[in-house]
Amino acid sequence: MLDLDGVVWLTGEPIPGVGDAVARLRTAGVRVLFATNNSSPTVDELLARLARGHIEAGLDDVLSSAQAAATLVEPGSTVLGLAGPGVAEAMTARGAVLVRDGQADADAVVVGWTQEFDFDRLTRATRAVLAGARLIGTNDDPALPTPDGLLPGAGALLAAVATASGCTPEVAGKPHQPLADLITRRVGTVDLVVGDRPTTDGLLARRLHAPFALVLSGVTAPDAPLPDPLPDFVADDLAALVPSAPT
Question: What is the 3-state secondary structure (H, E, C) of 143-156?
Fold first, then answer.
């Protein structure tokens, strides 16, 4: 299972060598699954980004925290999204009804990564939670890696709503149980989790009872203190990792 941001790409730009690395795994007979905490892109957008990295993938090969968050709402529920298009897609596929205001009629507020975060949207989300809506976060990552450095992550936006409303959110993405359950339903046993963030990818590996391979192409710097959990493998990037990973 490969993370995307920081492992396969940085803000959609492929990290050198990822296509060849995935091809080597597949040639060895390894099923490759892509799981991302970034809930903003739609599935088609994720597949298109993979294709730019010379990685062919289908709908069954990609999982996102948006899809995991959708499992937490019932079909027919009303949802106010403070999130990107990926959340809207996942909620619609689940049979939820998206609402714009939500203060009086939202069953849930779902917060994910979006650049369209402002005071008005924060206010609507807060008021909906105070009126009784559940607060669901696609993930609680504090930062998002980019080629130019870190951006505030979905966890920063979720923290704003949680602080303003005084509500403890339910979190769907890595390393939490909803995404782990989604992965298990999709593929069963996972043999290796590859990621750039021990607190998400590493802890998810523990939850899935799988080894963890840490790559240093994302948020974890080579000179960072020893991470917890300690990885089973460490490599500069996916291309460097694949020859040493068990197949």
Answer: EEEECCEEEECHHH
